[in-house]
Design a protein that fits this description.
alpha+beta, 13% helix, DNA-binding, globular
DNA sequence: CAGCAGATTGACT
DNA sequence: GTCAATCTGCTGC
């Protein structure tokens, strides 16, 4: 497997999300154990202008600073005090665009993922939904800012998937006014590892 | 500095 | 369908 290279995190964030991030293989090597999955569902957050983004208005708080790094790093934060959410940072340094990984389909180490999730059998719930993805892969908030192109426990590998892509509105951001309805969520039509279908 | 809401999930009525 | 769990940072007194 080959890493996504630095250039593949640059350019139009919507195109990058659909062509480079969706379908890629997200992997972790934790305690010598490899777990990975193909990314099946993502959401784009545009820093600065997007009212749903943590960096709306180019806000700069300690937890959000990794969004301003050059593309190819992780932005991990905690929602509701409980669930970690994993994002891929895009763009040149200073541009806080990110892609939230909402679902993956297991590729390697499904047995370890099941154990981390406390499940007995393979099912879509294993790693559908952003909180379930991080739990299954063992991603925690202290991995915020990690390099995804090698040298850290989180890795992002290049991969293609020919399945049809569905566009839909993003989940859980009803407060974001006109940005709440932007069709900036992408998922594979025929993959069962998707958190929510339709709008 | 208190109060509150949030890029969610799972257990229970 | 309803609700608790529990951390970060905003809003407003």
């Amino acid at each position: 497997m080959t890493y996504l290279d630095a250039a593949q995190f640059l350019g139009d964030p919507f195109e990058v999300a659909r062509k480079n991030i969706l379908g890629a293989i997200l992997a972790t090597d934790i305690g010598g154990k490899r777990t990975s999955g193909m990314i099946t569902e993502v959401e784009v957050y545009i820093g600065g202008s997007d009212k749903a983004s943590h960096t709306y208005g180019y806000r700069k708080t300690p937890r959000v600073m990794s969004q301003y790094e050059r593309g190819g790093r992780a932005y991990v934060f905690l929602v509701y005090g409980i669930h970690a959410q994993f994002n891929v940072v895009l763009g040149e340094a200073g541009v806080p665009d990110v892609v939230l990984v909402r679902s993956i389909s297991p590729v390697e180490g499904a047995d370890i993922m099941l154990k981390r999730r406390g499940l007995a059998r393979l099912c879509p719930r294993l790693c559908s939904g952003p909180g379930n993805v991080t739990k299954a892969l063992g991603i925690t908030t202290d991995m915020n800012g990690y390099d995804l192109m090698g040298g850290s426990e989180i890795k992002l590998f290049s991969n293609r998937c020919d399945d049809e892509i569905i566009e839909a509105r993003r989940i859980g951001i009803d407060y974001a006014e006109e940005y709440a309805y932007k069709p900036w969520r992408y998922y594979y039509k025929n993959n069962e590892y998707v958190s929510k279908r339709g709008n």
